[in-house]
Amino acid sequence: MPPKNRYTKEQITNAALEILRADGMAAVTARSVAAKLGCSVAPIFSVFENMDELQNELIMQCKAIYTSYVEVGLKDKVAFKGVGLSYLKFAMEEPNLFKLLFMSNDGAYGLDNVLSEIEVNYEGIFKCVQDCYGLSEEDSKKLYLHMWIYTHGIAVLCVTGTCLFSDKEIDGMLSEVCASIIKDLRSKK
Amino acid sequence: MPPKNRYTKEQITNAALEILRADGMAAVTARSVAAKLGCSVAPIFSVFENMDELQNELIMQCKAIYTSYVEVGLKDKVAFKGVGLSYLKFAMEEPNLFKLLFMSNDGAYGLDNVLSEIEVNYEGIFKCVQDCYGLSEEDSKKLYLHMWIYTHGIAVLCVTGTCLFSDKEIDGMLSEVCASIIKDLRSKK
DNA sequence: ATTGTTATATAACAGCTGTTATATTACCAC
DNA sequence: GTGGTAATATAACAGCTGTTATATAACAAT
To answer: Would the CB atoms of A179 and B183 count as touching at under 8 Å?
Structure first.
């Protein structure tokens, strides 16, 4: 008897995601999403209980997008490096999503989540580090931590518009630091 | 003939700064500052043209506070390390000020400003690097860039609540990475 | 075609923001 | 004390937010 829904959850989420990508989470309001869909706010609140629920859905979408970047990086010859470059690519191509996942303390992500996300491929990455660079598990962990912090530092600088590095510069910087740390770790054996 | 101002620019700025430190710039509103002072919003707008002017004043105050941290670091035996630790101390003790100065793309600071601020002591720091570690000017620059990015990475992780490192851990991490880079730079001579 | 259900639109509410017009009031000069 | 000036208080405006009550309208079943 009732008419079908004209606006699906997916349509609404996609409209909201467009706004999030372009202008950040603060720009995702009931009215802005409705305007993007060309409807009133009513359909939004018939699908989502409130705006918090929509935001949670968006965070899930962001994680999925980030995961797709990581998956590409994992296919790299040197998965360890590939994942790092994926992280940076995600930051540069989706700065507002990066901010939401990795620069917000409103509990969007956090290191635990980052690591558990990564941990799906943790062993693979570590094996890669050990194979490629001939490091012990402990040294691999050290290298991983240092490089993750360094990579995160670059990503944040790019995302906040503080510094603009070219792909080539970034590659050079990462290689240089990584090589220095590996060399030093090896020399201590 | 007119009564004296009961609320000075300094008083208003201090009240706003308290709110900024505790809850971030978004919490600094005309009404919140007035409430902290125990007055209406009128005195604020008699001293400041609008809220933007007050925010600019706050940014200047932040820079001054940050500068005081840097000055302490410069007195360190190894100024290069001292400044880095000051940067981290500032991030941990004043996360909301750090976010405003170093994590906002609304043009609060930016690398140019950071570097020009630092450049006041640039030569001193470089001389320190060259003296302490025996590096060329070019290598000193490299070391400085790498260490600044790494330090910034740690600071952001702390400020966003992603990771919590102890002072000891941070010291160890910084020392390890710094030593590795220096060793590698030297070996290339 | 009529009816009933409900998706959607409209519009309003409350609460926040910056800003300002008006009213009050405090204080300095006389 | 009286008066005038301007600092302050009050309250309102416009514009934003989330949310919701009500009205409209679309569509499926009969």
So the answer is: no
Q: Which residue is nearest to nucleotide D25 (CA to C1')?
A: A3
**HSE-up of A107 (CA within 13 Å, CB side)?**
2
Cβ-count burial of B140 within 10 angstroms (0-12 exposed, 13-18 middle, 19+ buried)? buried
Over the stretch A105-157, which tens digit does the pLDDT of each residue have?
Answer: 765 555 555 555 655 677 777 788 888 888 988 899 899 999 999 999 999 99
| Tokens linked to B172 | 């160890």
Q: At what angle do helices B137-159 and A137-159 cross, to 10 degrees?
A: 90
B177 and A146 in contact (C-beta within 8 Å)? yes
Contact (CB, 8 A) for B33 and B19: yes
CA–CA separation, A182 vs A133, rounded Å? Answer: 7
Of B142, B156, B184, the CB nearest to A179: B184
pLDDT band at B111 (very low <50, low <70, confident <90, very high): low
Distance A129 CA to C19 C1' (A): 60
Question: Which residue does chain B place closest to A108, by CA atoms?
Answer: B162
Residue A28 CA distance to nucleotide D18 C1' (Å):
12
Residue from A116, A113, A99 nearest A152 by CA: A99
How far is residue B91 from each of residues A14, A175, B31, B153, B158, measured CA to CA in Å?
Answer: 36, 28, 28, 11, 8
Q: Is the dihedral of CA A68, A69, A71, A72 positive or negative?
A: positive
**Secondary element (H or E) of residue A62:** helix A51-74
In sign, the C-alpha dihedral spanning A111, A112, A114, A118 is positive
CA atoms of A180 and A175, how far apart (whole Å): 8
Both tokens of residue B169? 């851990």
Q: Which residue is nearest to nucleotide C3 (CA to C1')?
A: A1
Q: Does A154 touch chain B (CB under 8 A)?
A: yes
Nearest to B105 among A110, A142, A160 (CB): A160
Alpha carbons A120 and A114: distance in angstroms, whole number: 10
